[in-house]
Write a structure and sequence with these properties.
Elements: H1 3-10, H2 25-36, E1 47-52, H3 55-61, H4 70-73, E2 76-83, H5 88-102, H6 110-120, H7 125-149, E3 153-157, H8 162-169, E4 176-185, H9 203-206
Antiparallel strand pairs: 1-2, 2-4, 3-4
Protein name: NAD(P)H-dependent oxidoreductase
InterPro entries: NfsB-like, Nitroreductase, Nitroreductase-like
GO molecular function: oxidoreductase activity
Length: 210
């Protein structure tokens, strides 16, 4: 089987992690770099990623995550937090980075700047939040698939109270909202779900080629 498909067949939403096994610093750096390199609309990356290593913080997050054991047994808990609202600074910071990285005078980017701002700045605040959360999910998916290539287990999690996460992690005052969580570590031998056959729609049901 092709490695791309093999890795995706191997991974599953790990329900029980081995709390004695930790992701190495070197592998964690690869996961973070893969996430940093993720695509995002306009390249803006309107989110921030929190890497939770502290067992104390994990214990605080567990009760507001439906009591799921992944919170305290996984090696790391990754919280993807989207920017809830933004103004011109989001685009300006990005274009300053483009100018520096590519050695392009900032005036040469004005057309792109005006285009982005015309599409994004007038959006209602709630629409901005939905859009930035979608961008966070792209990065989240990239981290999950990179982990599968390293044979690191993950569990994508939406079963948590965003407002409680925001309070515990101090996100609201940073104009951020916890949108999705990824538990990262290694499966326990006792996790029976690793032996379940993967259930997905058939290609005929899922795809239409026009």
């Amino acid at each position: 089987m092709n490695n791309v498909l093999e890795n995706r067949t191997w991974r599953y939403a790990t329900k029980k992690f081995d709390s004695t096994k930790k992701v190495s610093d070197s592998d964690l750096e690869i996961l973070l770099e893969a996430t940093r390199l993720s695509a995002s609309s306009y390249g803006l990356q309107p989110y921030h990623v929190f890497v939770i290593e502290s067992q104390e913080i994990k214990e605080q997050l567990k009760p507001v995550s439906w009591g799921q054991s992944q919170l305290t047994d996984a090696s790391h808990i990754i919280v993807f937090a989207n920017i809830t609202d933004f103004g011109e600074e989001l685009m300006d910071d990005y274009l300053n980075n483009v100018s520096t990285t590519r050695n392009i005078p900032s005036e040469g980017l004005k057309g792109y700047s005006d285009f982005m701002k015309s599409k994004l700045l007038d959006l209602p605040e709630d629409t901005k939040g939905v859009w930035t959360a979608r961008q966070a999910y792209i990065a989240f998916s990239n981290m999950m698939q990179a982990a599968s290539e390293l044979k690191i287990d993950t569990c994508p999690m939406e079963g948590f109270e965003s407002e409680a996460y925001n309070e515990i992690l101090g996100l609201s005052e940073k104009n951020l909202n916890a949108s999705v969580v990824l538990a990262v570590g290694y499966r326990s031998d006792e996790d029976e779900t690793q032996h379940y056959a993967k259930v997905r729609k058939s290609k005929e049901e899922l795809f239409t080629i026009i």
